[in-house]
Amino acid sequence: MTLSHEDTYECPRCNEEVRPDDEFCAHCGELFFEQVPCSVHRDRFAAGGCIICAKAFCSECGGERHRAFLCNRHLGYEIYEEHVRVFGTSDVAQAEFARDCLEKEGLHPVVFSRKASPLSLGAPDYTLFRASGEFDGHIVNELKVMVPAQEVLQAEKKLRGLRVLM
Questions:
Q1: Own/partner pairs for 62-68, CB < 8 Å, 24+ apart?
Q2: Of 86, 131, 161, 164, whose CB has the highest number of CB atoms within 10 Å?
Q3: What pLDDT band is residue 166 in, cutting at 50, 70 and 90?
């Protein structure tokens, strides 16, 4: 870590600001200490910290995706510009309801869409790209409610409590 200004440092891997007491970068999962034990295999050293659950994992228990370290449980999550998809729907009202509920919890949700035209919301309209920008042969027609990685667990808990997520 390099000092950037008072009370914050810069991550050597992603150049994002981190606090001096952080064990790893919340943006990319870079560990700041050597020989951190894996949360699962205590006899192995961690390869990174999961940006979603904030635990250290070895390379068998996690890996890199979208330039960030994730545990195997969260490796399949859809990530776009440091935001993680917590809910998806084609219904504008549902997406706005989920966003509003998360905002009331003090979270920072955004509704993301890759629809071809804003005039087509709610109508059949398709894009050939996932939020990550990669075409995988599936047609996507979805509004995505996304939150910063550090807020995913709290957002999922809230949405499950509202029965928005099952």
A1: 64/29, 66/132, 67/14, 67/28, 68/27, 68/28, 68/29, 68/149
A2: 86
A3: low
